[in-house]
Amino acid sequence: MKRLYNSGNSDEGQVSALFEYATEGIILTNEKGEIILVNPAALKLFNYQKEELLNKPIEALIPARFHDAHLQYRDAFNGQPANRTMGLGRNLFAKTKGGKEFPVEVSLSYYRQHDELFVIAFIVDITQRKESEQRMLDQKAQLEKITADMRKLNAELETKVEQRTRILQEALKELEKSQKEVSEALNKEKELNEIKSRFVSMASHEFRTPLSTILSSAALTSRYTKEDEQNKRDKHIKRIKDSVKHLNELLEDFLSLGKLDEGRIKAETCTFNGKEFLEEIIDEMKSTLKDGQSIDQHYTGASEFVTDKRLLKSILINLLGNAIKFSAEGSVISLMIREQNDYLMLSVKDEGVGISEEDQRHLFSSFFRGKNAVNIEGTGLGLHIVRRYVDLLKGSIQLESSLNSGTTVSVRLPSSPV
Q1: Could you tell me if 189 and 182 are in contact, meaning their C-beta atoms sit under 8 angstroms apart?
Q2: How do 270-273 and 304-307 pair as beta strands?
Q3: What is the CA radius of gyration of the chain?
Q4: Rounded CA gap, 232 and 238, in Å?
């Protein structure tokens, strides 16, 4: 150790202790690759006695198949010595006296003394690390096998997902066709491309979440095989049902927009009882309310009204759905309907996140979502479809909102539109 350090005796003692008691293997070689110092940890690692290694080439500790390559690496290191870790991107192996191979991690350092180059190698046995990595790979393979088995066990569910996917593909084709027609008629190719880009981004995002939920819940369900774990199975089954329901809602928006653009939706008027109709809508929406939410409803005027009941129902469900979705738990959604002078005036008011003035100018555009709605599920089609339905019924729609102060949407429809 005196060759390595020329400082005082105290420092030499500390360095000698560090060398002798280090837990890493430390080997010192000259520029010919001959071993001139080796610490106890290295001797134990390679199962040699000290006199068996001194003056032996370092290749004695390397499997024979790597000797040629190592000689080239050693010559390159001697030409441009630098402190570094060996084997980046490669697996390094060493061998014991008995010929047993094991994976290692090697760090190199160097110094010069009397114009002679000396190389210090710090050697760590990483067998346990490699075994841990292999166990992780085995576990990953096992999990992949479990997932594959679950796919087979849930063939019926996957068939339904495939059916929904085919329906979505058809909707996408129809939507693309209608967009091309609009582009040709209005000569707005640039605007069309922007719409399609937003659609692809939105569709991939909105469908990824429910599909991931379905797959993960299906995989987790198989883990709960005991009778007393039925509650856990039921929880994941409910998540699957809710995700399938969300997929259906997304598909309905896409299909509705496609039918509107193709002119396949026409207003068909009928006479119906407004109060009874309102009660049906409220009962249907109760299942979507968040914890503590409620709908405060008011109806005034004549009980009979003439319009397209189906379109009016879609308008109200969309508006109430938005109010519920963008409002917090425990909030109140107000629904007011007034029949007066052959007109039906309705408004939906919430206490939700509100909409900025900048975003309000684009809210009735297709696939548009407000900047503060990024983390709330939706297609950006709801208000666009509502406006199209209101137009079919010869009515008008207005929106009033401000950030963090809620939103009010008002619709005015004539009785028995021409």
Answers
A1: no
A2: antiparallel
A3: 37
A4: 10
**Using a CB cutoff of 8 Å and minimum separation of 24, what contacts does 336-339 make?**
336/297, 336/298, 336/299, 337/274, 337/278, 337/297, 337/298, 337/299, 337/300, 338/299, 338/300, 338/301, 339/274, 339/300, 339/301, 339/302, 339/303, 339/305, 339/415
Query: Model-level pTM?
Result: 0.43
d(CA 82, CA 96) in angstroms, rounded, equals 27
CATH architecture of 270-414: 2-Layer Sandwich (3.30)
| For residues 26-49, average pLDDT | 91
Average pLDDT over residues 186-190: 57
User: DSSP letter at 64?
Assistant: G
List, as own/partner pairs, every contact residues 127-131 make where C-beta atoms lie below 8 angstroms and the sequence separation is at least 24, other chains included: 127/102, 127/103, 129/103, 130/103
DSSP H or E run through 248: helix 230-261
Q: Where does the pLDDT of residue 47 fall: very low under 50, low under 70, confident under 90, or very high at 90 and above?
A: very high
Contact 119, 69 (CB under 8 A): no
Query: Per CATH, which fold does 9-125 belong to?
Result: Beta-Lactamase (3.30.450)
d(CA 257, CA 35): 79
Per-residue model confidence (pLDDT) at position 29: 92
- Best CA proximity match to 250, nearest among 313, 360, 368, 165: 165
Task: Return d(Cα 398, Cα 32) in angstroms, integer.
Answer: 87
Selection from 112, 90, 113, 94 nearest residue 103 by Cα: 94
User: Residues for the chain: how many in total?
Assistant: 418
Cα-to-chain-centroid distance, residue 360: 29
Residues forming a β-bridge with 343: 340, 414
Identify the bridge partners of residue 299 per DSSP, sorted by sequence position: 337
Domain range annotation of the chain: 9-125, 131-261, 270-414
